[in-house]
């Protein structure tokens, strides 16, 4: 009888009103305005609140009413050669990186792993190891429930490949694969079908250095060769599903990690010091925004942006932040703020933003 009473109580709790005496739509109006940093507390109040915070309705409601808050997620590799993941609330009064627990054990030692964000989920894709060929395995981290699960496998086993999101789909492009894999292929993930579809094009670059989405197109860059300083890139045109050679003038200055802010491409040039460069597509020239203090940046770095702010994240998660609209220079050095690094020498692999 006690077990039955407990199940009935849980059922009533899950089906009861969000807040007693208040219609659910009004309760949702109130609860959705609670800052994201307190969502963990909301989930502890009762089963109904926990289910609400974890479901798609909550995510959609906050997005529709401009209540979403964007946090930054960084995939790193620690001194033991294991991958690890950190999260940063960029608007917190005490900004600091926090470690995410519970990464899938099978992928901890893999290299060349893909990292992408779609909706309220993060994906770890593919990868390989010293004694392990490229894999098609995929794992998913649900931000709202703070849980890792296995995801739909890639169509093609691959590592050291490009990952981008375009039109609500994940693209896994190029890279190295198994002996049976087509090096000039790419996979697309449709979250509504929860499945991947494979494609092939001779222009796809297997040797991937970096990737961006600009003007509704995916750009893939390979590195300069040891015998030439020429930088090569291709772009994906979604209107006809083909890959083409990218504009040589734009690609010529793409010599470091890149990020797109309001349709403008920024690149961190780390070849001599650390300079932030901007591509002016109307004039077809690269211009220097400014250089960054060597005391704050710890290359190699990756870039990510939220709104008009660019975050330059380096070794040990040392982070430099500057606002494009408030860009200032002192003797050529960009005026910026910084976030203290963690007490480690972790290398940054990739960083993504998730709004919730």
TrEMBL record:
Residues 22-61 form the F-box domain. Keywords: Kelch repeat, Repeat. SMART domains: FBOX (SM00256), Kelch (SM00612). SUPFAM superfamilies: F-box domain, Kelch motif. Transmembrane segments: none annotated. The keyword Repeat applies. Gene3D superfamilies: Kelch-type beta propeller. It comes from Jatropha curcas. This is F-box domain-containing protein. The keyword Protease does not apply. The lineage of its organism: Eukaryota, Viridiplantae, Streptophyta, Embryophyta, Tracheophyta.
């Amino acid at each position: 009888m006690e077990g039955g009473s407990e199940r009935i109580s849980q059922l009533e709790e899950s089906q009861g009103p969000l807040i007693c005496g208040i219609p659910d739509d009004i309760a949702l109006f109130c609860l959705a305005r609670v800052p994201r940093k307190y969502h963990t507390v909301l989930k502890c109040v009762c089963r109904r609140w926990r289910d609400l915070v974890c479901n798609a309705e909550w995510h959609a409601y906050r997005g529709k009413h401009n209540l979403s808050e964007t946090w930054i997620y960084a995939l790193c590799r620690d001194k033991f050669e294991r991958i690890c993941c950190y999260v940063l609330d960029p608007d917190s009064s005490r900004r600091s990186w926090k470690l995410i627990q519970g990464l899938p054990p099978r992928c901890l030692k893999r290299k060349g792993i893909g990292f992408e964000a779609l909706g309220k989920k993060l994906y770890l894709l593919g990868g390989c190891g010293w004694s392990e060929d490229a894999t098609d395995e995929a794992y998913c981290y649900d931000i709202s429930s703070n849980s890792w699960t296995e995801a739909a496998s890639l169509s093609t086993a691959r590592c050291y490949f490009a990952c981008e999101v375009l039109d609500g789909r994940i693209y896994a492009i190029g890279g190295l694969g198994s002996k049976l894999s087509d090096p000039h292929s790419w996979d697309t993930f449709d979250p509504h079908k929860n499945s991947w579809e494979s494609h092939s094009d001779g222009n796809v670059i297997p040797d991937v250095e970096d990737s961006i989405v600009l003007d509704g197109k995916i750009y893939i860059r390979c590195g300069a060769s040891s015998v030439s300083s020429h930088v090569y890139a291709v772009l994906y045109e979604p209107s006809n599903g083909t890959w083409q050679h990218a504009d040589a003038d734009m690609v010529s200055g793409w010599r470091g990690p890149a990020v797109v802010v309001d349709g403008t491409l920024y690149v961190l040039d780390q070849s001599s010091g650390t300079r932030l460069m901007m591509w002016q597509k109307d004039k077809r020239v690269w211009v220097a925004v400014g250089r960054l203090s060597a005391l704050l940046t710890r290359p190699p770095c990756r870039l990510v942006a939220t709104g008009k702010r660019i975050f330059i994240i380096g070794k040990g998660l040392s982070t430099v932040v500057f606002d494009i609209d408030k860009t200032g220079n002192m003797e050529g050095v960009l005026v910026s703020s910084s976030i203290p690094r963690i007490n480690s020498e972790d290398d940054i692999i990739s960083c993504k933003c998730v709004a919730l």
